[in-house]
């Protein structure tokens, strides 16, 4: 097996991974950086983010207000020391992107423009039309090309962390083109592998979002934190699940039910605001958890519209006019037209909530460090506890910049003065990965169909771990996912070829998703309260006495995982009432 | 929803077992509103797990799923079944070596992308603490279109010149050079000219325009390349004919100078 010796190995080359790589290269040009990704960097799912990235920049805004919006938006499950660090770093990182050429929209005087976003009390969302994530990703990727110390390993599928002497010291990865396994010996590893939304059948997430980074860290002993908090974005296309950005509402689009009523007013987000005059932090600019939950109630009441794609409500943007739509929401217009046949200039577009983002992930602290020494994580795969129980739109693109950079600085510090690795010990571990793959290839008695298991997993998650949850449903979900994990050991590959074998990659991805799904279901069953995106019909109140703490899920091999808890860091904002009524001052 | 049985003829190639590529026909029940990618996904899940192709976003922004569909370069997530009748022929993207089935090797494109220095080479450096480089909406519009490239490489598959002369830097990479040249924050045009203004660069382009026709992101590489030819010609005139003349690179940095020329 070929060995690559490096200083820092980064798994994932989306926004967080690229930002980390550039920060490492800038901090010390002598550091050798291996940037490993199962896709070419510009295919990473950061490219699909649309609306924008939040950072205090305008004179009427303040860090305190961004802090309050984020902590309240997260239903007080955010670590407040983390939020404090984040809000101060956010504008610096967005400005850095400006210097690197990101085509942010501008005011007439040439300064950066901002737009309103859900749950934010001030306009602070920097944007590049409705392709903000795309431009951030490409700006980072192109900028990274000037650093010779970054060596890319495009289309390498990372498999297992190498852990010796209590430290993470590398990772194994399959070169997808040849099917050959490589091991990377590294003094530090940063995981930036993205979320796991594909464990659900209806998701905005691209095919690659299968939780590989989360699962890899989890299997190596790093706990997953707050996995039960899964964000439903309120406005997805009902057939493909493609995202229609929150900026649709930020620019003035409204949600109506089959009676033409702006129903959010009936769920604590009223009174109704005048059409075309969106007000911050109320009605359509409420937080995603509340807006998606309101849809569920409308569905129960029979107020939704039955379409050929299932039950929907309508997102109406006609009053914005063609000029504004073309300037600010060109991608939304194109998506609705191409995939649904709806011209948003002339018609309201049917939408429904869709799985979008994992608030949970690999447990990290504000320095982006996991409890496993030498292992760092950033971006959606990490849970640094910025987003708490519900992420505000436009905080995550900044999160991957702020904590991608932070992970790099922490890793650069960690690698100083480490002893030489015990290569024999690492080689032995890498051999175990090889055996795992070989065993999968040589298995002949497998009876389980891979796509069949995947379908069962997705149906289980949708049925039992949706917007509203119950004890019985969650117990069923836990049992079923546990059963699927056992059956997964009997899946058989149809394709036994070495070269670009997507049957193999999909099998490995399914393994990752099942590990993540188990953490989601177990965490959700154990949390007997309703908070943010985790809503229980049998425990409808938030319970700060028992659950103002993070769920920590620890991998136990094929057994059920172990769950314990970690207190939330509260510095200055005691848990309070989330108020999204327009009446508040 | 209306269903329709679609026949796909897919080019298969496995270097482990095949000496040459061959077509395989699949019959698959599809929803009328599906795209070709949906049909491939159904084949992969229900009929033939050994079929290989790339995809991710299913919304025409990640650029993974470019392939030839009835001979035309297309994103398969944006090739609607409603636009096709009869057997749909699906092949790997033209002009790139095939790794396996519909998976091609983009190494050449990745190398060329890097050669055009697609990043801001600042006209004047300043620290982050001094805030943004001011850029008016008009200045943004000068390059925004060219920043929309998703690197899907459809334009390379469409470009006859790239097919004939593989050393040609090609539409997407050259357009990206133009994108940075046109950015008011950038002062790196002369550094890029070493690659851009050569026989491998814009002068290799014969203005067929196929790149712009197939571009799924409306980037219009053909217009970028023609603009670059004009600027490069101006460079030559200034260097060779005007005593003590400034290069067009300097001129281009002044508002609208190139547009008036």
Structural description of this entry:
Chain A has helices at 15-27, 63-73, 80-99, 132-144, 212-219, 247-250, 288-301, 322-328, 330-340, 396-414, 423-442, 450-464, 471-488, 502-526, 544-547, and strands at 2-5, 8-11, 33-37, 53-54, 114-115, 125-126, 150-154, 156-164, 167-175, 180-185, 188-191, 224-225, 230-236, 254-256, 305-307, 310-316, 349-358, 361-363, 375-377, 382-383, 468-469, 535-536, 549-554, 562-567. Chain A is α/β, with parallel strands linked by helices and 585 residues long. Chain A has 2 domains: 1-229 and 359-585, FAD/NAD(P)-binding domain, CATH 3.50.50; 236-353, Flavocytochrome C3, Chain A, domain 1. In chain A, strand 8 and strand 9 form a beta hairpin. Chain B has 2 domains: 3-104, Beta-grasp domain (Ubiquitin-like (UB roll)); 107-260, Alpha-helical ferredoxin (Fumarate Reductase Iron-sulfur Protein, Chain B, domain 2). Helices cover 35% and strands 14% of the residues of chain B. Chain B is built from 11 helices and 7 strands. Chain B has helices at 36-47, 107-115, 137-141, 154-158, 160-164, 171-181, 189-196, 210-214, 221-241, 248-253, 257-260, and strands at 3-12, 22-31, 66-69, 72-75, 88-91, 98-100, 103-104. In chain B, a hairpin with a 2-residue loop joins strand 3 and strand 4. Chain B is elongated and about 70 Å long.
Features:
heterodimer, A: 585 residues, alpha/beta, FAD/NAD(P)-binding domain, Flavocytochrome C3, Chain A, domain 1, five-stranded parallel sheet, five-stranded mixed sheet, 15 helices, globular, B: 261 residues, alpha+beta, Ubiquitin-like (UB roll), Fumarate Reductase Iron-sulfur Protein, Chain B, domain 2, 2 domains, two-stranded antiparallel ribbon, 7 strands, 35% helix, elongated, disordered C terminus
Number of helices of chain A: 15
- What would CATH call the class of the largest domain in chain B? Mainly Alpha
Based on CA atoms alone, the radius of gyration of chain A comes out at 23 Å
Top CATH class of the largest domain in chain A: Alpha Beta
Structural class of chain A: alpha/beta
What is the typical, i.e. mean, pLDDT of chain A? Answer: 97
Q: Work out the oligomeric state of the chains in this entry.
A: heterodimer
Alpha carbon gap, first and last residue of chain B: 55 Å
Strand tally of chain A, please? 24
What number of structural domains do the residues of chain B give? 2
| Arithmetic mean of pLDDT of chain B | 92
CATH architecture of the largest domain in chain B: Orthogonal Bundle
Tally of strands of chain B: 7
CATH architecture of the largest domain in chain A: 3-Layer(bba) Sandwich
